Amino acid sequence: MKKAASDFTSCLMSSLKPACFCELCFDEYYNLSKVYCSIHSSKHCFQPLLAGDSTYAIEEFYNFARATWETRGHCSNCFNGSQLNGNVKDFYIYLSSFDRCIHNASNNYTVCNTCKQDYRALMEFYNSKFGRDPSKVCADVSDHMNSSMYKWRIAYKCPEGENPVLTVSLFTSGVLILTALFYVCVYVWGRREQKKDMTQKRIKRSKSKSHSRSLSPDGVKNKEIESQIDLSTDSATLN
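^ that's the sequence the OP posted. Answer follows.
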């Protein structure tokens, strides 16, 4: 479980911007799900793990991974089975055409004129296939579309009318990325705090044992002998 969780986290964090974790982390997510379900279905394995996990890190991390994949990323909407669906593949064709045009352009003015048709085709395809419910668009598609909008409007300052569908999509993508970063940070911080608590408990147990030894009969006798020696020394000094 530890390796599966680590692999998914590493893939997720390296694929957030631009978001492409649905496509790139497919194997890591389904391997994590398979390992978790295998553990969960085995009483001999699952119960001992939970008994030793007072922070519920296993449950919390899997719930985070599942929410990121299904609820926030809508990654299932990218696939048919284990393959990208037709709409997503076609979207990448339009996207590649637009990106090639920008790459080959010599300046901003050239981009705005030469790449206008490619950008318009990309937007029209996105709106026709994904624009009906942008809140459930696969995160990879949504973020790539937002990046294309940023290049066109901000980086190259090309004119275009406002599109409310894509504005909502941009907001959704930003919330997804910030939420994912927050939960990963909470998970890492929680594990560190757990280790700190365990260390403090060990120190307390060690002090408790030392205190118990000092109150044992031998310990009392030693203290009485030390007190007698101190009194004898004081008497000798006075004489």
